[in-house]
Every structure is written in C-alpha cells, then in structure tokens.
Write a structure and sequence with these properties.
about 100 residues, alpha/beta, disulfide bond, redox-active center, Glutaredoxin, single chain
C-alpha cells in the first residue's frame, strides 16, 4: 500500500478503519525529510498498517485538533481512535515496535 497524503477534509475517512500511522509533517522540516524513507520502508514491510501524511502548514484544522506543536509528530490510530503519539525523529525499530504492539 502506497503512502498517501490527506487533508483536513479527507482525514477522518482515512483513519476510520484498521491501524493507520499518521505523519504530521511539513516540506521545510529537516527531521520530517529524514523520517520519510523509514516510513516508506515500513510501508513496504508491514502489511497490517496504513501510513498517511498530513502537511501541517496546509491543514491547520486537524493539526490543531490533535495538539501537534512539533514535527514530525506521528500518531497511531486504531479504528479511528488515537492510541499512541510520538514526537520527533524516531528510529525504524521504535516505529515498528509501536505498530506491532497495537496490531
């Protein structure tokens, strides 16, 4: 499953079913650029999770709703409910562990 980009308008639909990891990011953010390839790897390796990206500059409504103050912020949703939140650049192992414990 390819990583897709969502907006304030499409966000709720994208997170409502299953396990979904949301990457709150911005194009100017250095750590966001560093975490992107790790998310691509995880997307190719773990089948039971969807990964989506939300540009915080273009989508302030959802960003504000989930209290995102620093980026990258990753929030894991299970059937539409936020179950875990991590802030900042994370190693791949930490991200796969985060997903595994909620799978």
């Amino acid at each position: 499953m390819a990583i897709s980009h969502v907006t304030d308008q499409t966000f709720t639909t994208e997170i409502k079913e299953g396990l979904v990891l949301v990457d709150f990011w911005a194009p100017w953010c250095g750590p966001c650029k560093m975490i992107a390839p790790l998310l691509e790897e995880i997307d190719g390796e773990i089948e039971n999770v969807g990964i989506i990206k939300l540009n915080v500059d273009e989508n302030p409504e959802i960003t504000r709703e989930f209290g995102v103050m620093s980026i990258p912020t990753l929030i894991l949703f299970k059937d539409g409910v936020a179950v875990e939140k991590v802030i900042g650049l994370q190693p791949k192992e930490a991200l796969t562990e985060l997903i595994s414990k909620h799978a």
